[in-house]
Amino acid sequence: MKADAIKLDGKTAGSVDLDDEIFGLEPRADILHRVVRWQRNKAQAGTHKVKTRSEVSYSTKKIYRQKGTGGARHGARSAPIFRGGGIYKGPVVRSHGHELTKKFRKLGLRHALSAKMAAGELVVIENAESDGKTSALAKQIKALGWKRALIIDGATVNEGFAKAAANIQGLDVLPSMGANVYDILKRDTLVLTKAGVEALEARLK
Questions:
Q1: What backbone torsions phi and psi does residue 139 show, to the nearest 5 degrees?
Q2: Could you write out the three-class secondary structure of 54-112?
Q3: Mind listing the pLDDT tens digit for each residue in 106-119?
Q4: Can you say whether residue 88 is alpha, beta or left, with left for phi > 0 and alpha for psi between -120 and 50 degrees?
Q5: What residue ranges of the chain have pLDDT lower than 50?
Q6: What confidence tens digit (pLDDT) does each residue in 125-170 have?
Q7: Do 139 and 19 contact (CB within 8 A), yes or no?
Q8: Does domain 2-44+97-204 correspond to CATH entry 3.40.1370.10?
Q9: Domain residues of the chain, as ranges?
Q10: Three-state DSSP state, 125
Q11: φ and ψ at 86, to 5 degrees?
Q12: Residue closest to 40 by CA, chosen among 175, 181, 174
């Protein structure tokens, strides 16, 4: 399929051919859900931890004699039944990640790109280059009407553009290898440079 390309100043910059197998699929919510869930679970720290009976700071001396007290038979104050004792079956440090095949992750990225294309939220620009001035880039972004946008460039991001975009709220810039389903879906507008389109097509074929 054909898509019109523009420059950052809003002028036309010809058109680009988009691969139907990457940008023309019928988006499936179940595939997108599985990939986003895999991403978020993998990113979860999993550093929650409580002290067990063997880790709390208490003497191991038997707290009172076994028989004759009229109470339950206890050996240590560190038992979970006591206030300040160890926690029974509490959270421990672990990974929340789970496996998802590379083939399925690529499929998810194709569906994410197709979803943006189908919703009319995909824009192709000639290039993402700037002299590093935030004010100038902010005016261009405002004129284009991008409020929450993700810009995906080629193999590398222009240093001046990355510096100018760093302080603009709602604007993210990634190289093509950093493109992922979660970041694509959470932004209102997906912006691809011509180099970004070529790199994504080469990555997903």
A1: -65, -40
A2: CCCCCCCCCCCCCCCCCCCCCCCCCCCCCCCCCCCCCCCCCCCCCCCCHHHHHHHHHHH
A3: 999 999 999 999 99
A4: beta
A5: none
A6: 999 988 889 999 999 999 999 999 999 999 999 999 999 999 999 9
A7: no
A8: yes
A9: 2-44+97-204, 50-90
A10: strand
A11: -70, 155
A12: 181
The one-letter code for the residue type at 188 is D
Distance, in Å, from the CA atom of 197 to the CA atom of 203, rounded to the nearest integer, reads 10
Lookup: tokens for 35: 């990939």
Tokens 């011509």 correspond to what residue?
A: 194
- Produce one character per residue of 84-105: b if its CB has 16 or more CB atoms within 10 Å, e if not: ebbeeeeeeeeeeeeebeeeeb
* Whole-angstrom distance, CA of residue 9 vs CA of residue 144: 8
Using an 8 Å Cβ cutoff, are 149 and 141 in contact? yes
Element (H, E) at 151: strand 149-152
**What are 193's strand-pairing partners?**
125
As to burial, measured by CB atoms within 10 angstroms (0-12 exposed, 13-18 middle, 19+ buried), residue 79 is middle
